[in-house]
Amino acid sequence: MSAASLNPVSAADVEHFAGIGIAVERLDGRAEEPYNVDALKRYMGSVDVVLLPESTEQVSQILSYCHERRIGVVVQGGNTGTAGGALGRHDEVLLSLRRMNAVRDVDAVAGVLVADAGCVLEDLDAHVRQLGFIVPLDLGSRRQCMIGGNVSTSAGGLRYLRYGSMHGNVLGVEAVLPDGRVLDALSVLKKDASGYDIKQLFIGAEGTLGVVTAVSIALAPRPASSRVAVLGLGDFDKIHRAFVLARQHLGEIVSAFEFWERRCNELTVEFCGHPDLLARPHAFYVMVETRGSVARHDAEKMEAFIAALRDADLVDESRELSDPDGMDAAWLFRSDMARAHMLSGCMYVYDFSLPPRHQYALLDATKNRLRSMAMYGGPDDPVKDVTIFGHIGDDNIHLQVIARQYGGPVEAAVEPWIYTWVGSHGGSVAAEHGLGAHKGPFLKYAKSPAVIETMKSLKRLLDPRGIMGPGKHVAIA
Ligand SMILES: Cc1cc2nc3c(=O)[nH]c(=O)nc-3n(C[C@H](O)[C@H](O)[C@H](O)COP(=O)(O)OP(=O)(O)OC[C@H]3O[C@@H](n4cnc5c(N)ncnc54)[C@H](O)[C@@H]3O)c2cc1C
Fold this sequence. Notes:
Mean pLDDT: 95
CATH topology of the largest domain: Uridine Diphospho-n-acetylenolpyruvylglucosamine Reductase, domain 3
Helix content: 25-40%
Pfam families: FAD-oxidase_C (PF02913), FAD_binding_4 (PF01565)
CATH architecture of the largest domain: 2-Layer Sandwich
Shape: globular
Domain FAD-binding PCMH-type: 43-222
Bound molecules: flavin-adenine dinucleotide
Protein name: D-lactate ferricytochrome c oxidoreductase
Largest sheet: 7 strands, antiparallel
InterPro entries: FAD-bd_oxidored_4_C, FAD-bd_PCMH, FAD-bd_PCMH-like_sf, FAD-bd_PCMH_sub2, FAD-linked_Oxase-like_C, FAD-oxidored/transferase_4, Oxid_FAD_bind_N, Vanillyl_alc_oxidase_C-sub2
EC number: 1.1.99.40
């Protein structure tokens, strides 16, 4: 069941796929984007054969053949994942969903979208906006990532605080199992207590249990009124206190509560060329968004919130935005933060959930460790920056270590130490980016042996030959 027990793809296999009408691209192992290079340029793939099916039936034909022949399969959506899960590292076929991109149905009464897995998130959002809805998920990678990839990584994103998780919003999936059987669990029902909820298995499975070919998702109404406030704060503790006040004053209309620290701000200005959102530099920044239905009420609530922040001496500067261009610019600034880090050097991005009381300590602990190893703090040290930003309302902290080059002593200094630190402080080693190519072995620091063994049992049950995503996720040896 290991990658070693799988067969390489032969010329006869390629001929077979072409012969049954499946589009094939050959790379000869070239580091070609998007197939063999990831968004961060951290992971490189080495696949030769890319298959581009156009229908669920073609996906089924591919998997049934690969199962029979014991050929490894790696599934790729928009290839924006940060964990290397969408790249082939052995002699697998790469199955790209990019040609399966039709909207199958929108029920405007129920507010339910049914779409092929290869639909790009931004295109889906544009499609349903005309009908008065939004897709309840938004990521900085929205122009490339695909809904099947979003489901498969259990993506979180910028408005998780308001709209919740993929586990709540996805109503059904159609998936092709590793042996080629089509599993039709494409329900459009919001309530269903009739047995095990099978679709949940595919949310966060990262292509290891089959291929998600279509998704049905509950849409959210397009908000009639929206506002943004950008805040400058002097210390991290004030972010948590401001969040408590946001819940009290903004209640059901708060839709995002994002934070970043000064260095993230500087990198975004420097590498993406965006103007600063506030007049003065601050140690920390918060961006609060409200989405409601009556602009006047929402404005009153936001004003009361800002006044409460000032009374409690929590903010040093604030700026309210309600014009669409201003709000778009603020969101672009926030969304481009990951890109700015990517442009500034070789980015190791860590995506953790942590209880509030340990969130800032993670940054301090990481910097201290790297300093003590003479890797950070000096002008020519191998680590240029260590930063945090993220979705504070979801307890989801992104920690970036920006190195001068990938691999070597920096990686060895940070991993697995950082996963042990997070596990011992009650965190999750992957809040929203998944396990991918190399986080599987670190799961043991944060999940019990019984949980990991149950995951492996499910993998063995659905993919007994281990053809899907070989060596990834909770790989079975
Ligand atoms: C600039 C930037 C910002 C980002 N911001 C966020 C953020 O705020 N929140 C967040 O959660 N993520 C974020 N991400 C990470 C990434 O965009 C998400 O993980 C996204 O959901 C991946 O979708 P994709 O289509 O690109 O999947 P891919 O990268 O192609 O694949 C990811 C994994 O899912 C599997 N997979 C893909 N499609 C399928 C399918 N149809 N069936 C079965 N398996 C499949 C792949 O095998 C792989 O293991 C960001 C990434 C970038 C580059």
